[in-house]
Specification:
The structure is a single chain. The chain contains 6 helices and 2 strands, in the order αβαααααβ. With 219 residues, it is mostly helical. The chain is globular. The longest helix is centred in the last third of the chain and has 32 residues. α2 runs antiparallel to α5. Its main location: secreted.
Length: 219
């Protein structure tokens, strides 16, 4: 009847429509957006570390979880990448040098944190450490993306902690806890400084451009 006729007409009309170009809105990830995402991730990790550090220091127990505990830095703690660099000297480095230092530092700190994850004594702490390690791995990859977008090569050499046969394993439980304490302290300082680095860098690099592309067969 009438319904079948209308249906037949619509099918014929659709089959004879000209081919339309496909509309594809794509966002090109330029240096500006890559830097912004890395900055956001750094700030997120700062927030995440505050909770993780409190949980881990409570796990270590006194005196490590006491708010006024401020021990002298031991020579053993120098195995990790130190963030104790004069700020004026740090700012005097090139963008490439600062990015390379950040990349190397977080790659090494990630290796140390994964070792903590394997030693944690509670399921909650292992879960928190595992989640933080995943986020920190994302930061390492994000820094690599920023360097690539700016045309900088990644630092040569192993990303993990260097072999140090002359540095013995902590001879007692207290010194082992001291190593863990300083690891968290260094990580806090690195994240604080990195946030400032990426905040300054994003002001120097224009934002990414969102482009609208028309893709059509035969064009």
């Amino acid at each position: 009847g009438d319904s079948w006729g209308i249906f037949t007409f619509l099918c014929a009309a659709l089959c004879n429509l000209p081919a339309l170009p496909a509309l594809n809105c794509s966002e090109e990830l330029g240096p500006g957006q890559s830097i912004q995402k890395t900055y956001d991730l750094t700030r997120y990790l700062e927030h995440q570390l505050r909770t993780l550090a409190g949980t881990y220091l409570n796990y270590l127990g006194p005196p490590f979880n006491e708010p006024d505990f401020n021990p002298p830095r031991l020579a053993r703690a120098e195995r990790g990448p130190s963030a104790t660099v004069d700020l004026d000297l740090w700012r005097g480095l090139t963008d490439n040098a600062r990015l390379a230092a950040n990349y190397r530092a977080y790659s090494r700190l990630l290796c140390y944190l994964r070792a903590l994850d394997g030693q944690a004594g509670t399921a909650e702490l292992r879960h928190r450490l595992g989640h933080f390690c995943s986020s920190l791995q994302g930061l390492v990859l994000s820094i690599a993306g920023v360097m690539s977008s700016l045309g900088y090569p990644l630092p040569a050499g192993p990303a993990g902690p260097p072999a140090s046969p002359g540095t013995p394993v902590a001879p007692n439980d207290f010194l082992k806890k001291m190593d863990d304490f300083w690891l968290l302290k260094e990580l806090q300082t690195w994240l604080w400084r990195s946030a400032k680095d990426f905040n300054r860098l994003k002001k120097k690099v224009p934002p990414a451009v969102v482009t609208l592309r028309l893709e059509a067969r035969g064009f």
